[in-house]
Amino acid sequence: MSEINKKIKEIIDSNEVVLFMKGTPDAPQCGFSMAVSNILKHLNVKFEGVDVLKNNEIRQAIKDYTDWPTIPQLYIKGEFVGGCDIVKEMFEKGELKNLLKNKSLLS
Amino acid sequence: MPITKNDISTMIMSAFPDATLELKDIAGDNNHYSAKIVSKTFNGKSKVEQHKMVYRALKGKMGNELHALALTTEEE
C-alpha cells in the first residue's frame, strides 16, 4: 500500500465519522460538501472534516481509494457510506440516523 | 469542456438499455445535471454500488468534464 493510501486508511480508521470535503465544516467551499456537513451537524453527530483543498495528494488519492469520483465522501466506522446524493437520500429516509444509532454513534 | 445532455443520455442508455431516465440540465449551463435512473440492473445492489455503475457508464467524466450530476437510482 502506498504512503498516501496508508495515511488515508489511518484517518478513516482513527475517526469514527470522517467527511472528506472541500473546505471545513465551519467554512465549506462547495455546496455538496456543505450539504453533507450540515446534515451531520443537524444530527448532532461528532465528525472529523478533512479538507481536501488543503492537500492535493489526498484529494486525488481518496477518489482512487474508494473508486468514487467525487468529493464529499462520508465514512462511518471505516466504511464508505456515500457521496452527497446517497447521504441526502439516507438522511431524508431516516436511514442515516438509524445507521448511526446502530453503530452506537447516536443515542 | 462542458458535456451535453445528449452525451450523458447516450452513455447512460447504452450502459442501461432497460432504464427509465429522467435527465435535467438544472442550471441550464451544460454543467449541472440531475438524473433519475430506474433499471433492473440495480436490483439487489447497494446504493454505493448502483452509483458506481453509473459513474463507470460515464467513463471517467464524472468529477472531471462533468462537474455535477445529482444522482438518484432506483431498482425496478
Protein described:
The complex is a heterodimer of chains A (107) and B (76). Chain A has helices at 3-14, 31-42, 56-66, 84-92, 95-102, and strands spanning 17-21, 48-51, 73-76, 79-82. Chain A has a 4-stranded mixed β-sheet with strand order 2-1-3-4, sandwiched between helices. The termini of chain A are far apart. Chain A is globular and about 35 Å long. Chain A has a single domain, classed as Glutaredoxin (3-Layer(aba) Sandwich). The longest helix of chain A has 12 residues, at 3-14. With 107 residues, chain A is of the alpha+beta class. Chain A is built from 5 helices and 4 strands, in the order H-E-H-E-H-E-E-H-H. With 76 residues, chain B is of the alpha+beta class. Chain B has a single domain (5-75), classed as GMP Synthetase, Chain A, domain 3, CATH 3.30.300.90. In chain B, 29% of the residues lie in helices and 29% in strands. Chain B is built from 2 helices and 3 strands; from the N terminus they run αββαβ. Chain B has a 3-stranded mixed β-sheet with strand order 1-2-3. Chain B is globular, with a radius of gyration of 12 Å. Chain A binds chain B through residues 32, 63, 67-70, 80-86, 89-90, and chain B through 47-48, 51-52, 55, 60, 62-64, 68, 70-72.
For the secondary structure, the number of strands of chain B is: 3
Shape of chain A: globular
**CATH class membership of chain B:** Alpha Beta
Radius of gyration of chain B: 12 Å
Biggest sheet overview of chain A = 4 strands, mixed
Strand order of the largest sheet of chain B: 1-2-3
Percent range for helical residues of chain B?
25-40%
Secondary-structure element pattern of chain A, one letter each: HEHEHEEHH
Shape of chain B: globular
Kindly identify the CATH topology of chain B: GMP Synthetase, Chain A, domain 3
